[in-house]
Amino acid sequence: MSARVNNDAEVLTKVSDKTSNKKAKVEDIRGGSNIRSWIWLYFDSVSINNEKYAVCKVETVKGKKCGEKYKNSTSNCSRHLSNVHGITENQLEKYIRVLEVELAKDANLDKDSKYLTKIMLTKDEWDLLRNLIPVLGLFEEATRYLGGSKYVTYSTMNPIMIHIIDMLKLVSISPEEINVENIKDIFAELEICVDNNDTHKKINLDKPMQTSGVLEKVKETLYRAMRFYWKKDNIESYLPSILDPRVKKFDFASDKIKQVQDLLRARYQDAKDRSTTSTPTTNTLSPASYFHNATVSSFYKPTLLNIFNNPSPLNLQSELDEYLAVPQIPFDSDPFMWWNVNKDRFPVISRLARTYLAVSATSTPSERLFSDGGNMMGPKRTRMNPEFFKRLMFLKRNHNFLDSIHP
């Protein structure tokens, strides 16, 4: 690291007076003996009980400052910025500044250097980009996670979307919804250019962007769009969550749990009734028939032993109540493995869980499957037998679970 800084210093000392202002900018960005670490862009030095602390001043998604404190450790501050806020030292900005100086050294490239300086992002624009990272990072993380195909995603869709909406909501936002088709580009600073009677719009790179209030506008627009597209009144969509032993306590939507439990009871009863009517009959003499044939006349219809075939309503709900009373399991556990272990304990609910939890939250896995199929069924394989094609696809998608693909 020190060798790199020394090399950069040699570059800067060779810069002419003509580019001294550029040199100052590079030194300011890189940091020298008179410039503090880059983390002080996001931390304030505060004295508490005669001891120096670094207090994080990054604005969170909800508009409040973080306030996390660290004592005499810029490494902890840097780690906090990276892990909590997704902020790292801006290497891109440094490299652009160095390029700016390098171009200025060559008279033939000085024009490019001036143009680069002209269109270079301002400090306010860099700060806006840094503050947008934790906001847009929510969507990137949700897209990446919900697009997975090797774990349960449907049950986590509602909790994730509700959390994003809550994080985007600002105090000043009214509950009014908008027509998302009328949303304007927040970042577009446009000018009208007339070229050969052709009027068109283009981005004005020469004029710095007015960043004041843009972050709040981005949050507000995203919040309204989420409220427009994501409706939370469909109780059916919450069933996968209550069937997932990781999130069934509904900490994310406590106001919905009673309705969802009632719906689950109805689904549970339907599934139990279907399993009862679909049970195959045998020729084996039942205890009730034996009791009738052995001890009573044809004038009496036996009903005593029916108590074992028709449990009380309390017993009908015991399986469901027992499941709801079971503590949640850690989120990094596999729900399917849990249900496989507990399928005999909860036979009816486990069938419901297999039905709902197997659904993918997005179409991404199926699109990947079609893509794999297209790659395998190429122009030179169009006469492949359908059954053979299905087996090849099965092996390709499940080879990690097989010791060998050879019989």
Automatic annotation (TrEMBL):
GO cellular-component term (any): nucleus
Top-level taxon: Eukaryota
InterPro entries: HATC_C_dom, RNaseH-like_sf, ZnF_BED_domain_contain
Compartments where located: Nucleus
Transmembrane spans: none
SUPFAM superfamilies: Ribonuclease H-like (SSF53098)
Keywords noted in UniProt: Metal-binding, Nucleus, Zinc, Zinc-finger
Domain spans labelled HAT C-terminal dimerisation: 319-398
GO MF assignments: protein dimerization activity; zinc ion binding
UniProt entry tagged with the keyword Nucleus: yes
A Pfam cross-reference name: Dimer_Tnp_hAT
Main location (coarse class): nucleus
Record protein name field: 1743_t:CDS:1
